[in-house]
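S.,

Sequence below, as promised.
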Amino acid sequence: AQNCPERNGRFADPSQCDAYIECENGVPTPKLCPDGLMFSNEASFFSYPCVYPGQTDCSSRPSTQPAQPTTSCPHQFGYYLLGDANNCGQYLYCAHGKGFTFNCPEGLAFNEISLRCDWADLVPTCNAEGYLGFTCPVTYSNELGYPAEYSYHRASGSCDKYFICLQDRPRLFGCPEGQAFSEDNKKCEDERDVPGCYIQGVQQ
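The prediction came back faster than expected:
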């Protein structure tokens, strides 16, 4: 059994990331986070000490309790990417073994490290080009032939969606309602002013 390093407080198990001891008046009580959550040394004594993986460093105490999977979840708690590198906009949230499926806003991908939806090119496990269906063409900024830091491209088959390429990586954007992306002016404009995007009052 572990001893209390201090009279009061919570202290990490030396080898298991989801285990800790809680000390009150020098008396240690072994504790275990729910399956899928990890103990955080940074949590104050008055806050819940168990967090999602990625929100604490488990490199020095990598072991965990055996998983308690259900028919819909690999663990009782957690966020999990659904799909693969070319389909990375959907994720699973598990609470008490029950799974809930969510979709990121269009063009964004689920980041398993930050546990939030992010630009696809910033998510290490996502192939932004495959996911968005667009590969940035090589563009040049001036007559000296230096590669452009960013460029604009209207999405194929769409008037109100376009890509901004930042250092040759695509990000999907959309124009406000009633506007379309002008490839000539590289910005959203009234759809009636963009050729081919307004026919008989219907946006294309």
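Residues 134-203 form a domain with the Antimicrobial Protein, Tachycitin; Chain A fold (CATH 2.170.140).

Coffee later?
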